[in-house]
Amino acid sequence: DDAQVQAAHGVRVIGHQVEERAAVQIDPGGVPLDGHPRVEAERAQRADDRTARGEYRAARAELRNARGALARGDQRAASEACARARARAPTLPEAIELEAVIAQARGDGARARKLFQLWLDGGADDPVGEEHARSLLNR
Prior knowledge:
Blueprint: H1 2-8, E1 11-14, E2 17-20, H2 37-71, H3 75-88, H4 93-105, H5 109-121, H6 127-137
Antiparallel strand pairs: 1-2
Helix pairs in contact: 2-3, 2-4, 3-4, 4-5, 5-6
């Protein structure tokens, strides 16, 4: 079969163009064999994706804890839970925003401004929160 021969030799013909790729060990069924670098790289990427999803899920759980603590007036617990969320997912926009809100509630205006700016620069996705952040920054 031409497709298997092309794949085994790392070449694929597309119209009149030839695309070269690294040669792949192919089993008789046309599937790359275990241990091949491409197969291993794909496995590693899937594992990384699962790990990242788990970290984001755990970070969001910490953010729920932080919001609950903030609603109860426990700013220290809110700050700690938010810090745990940021440790798991440092660039998660809602974690940055919540940390800014907590900083503002604790009276740390400079930190709140810095975090709100970071959140806005990262692409704020909450129009009401964005307006609040911009008003704070314009004071």
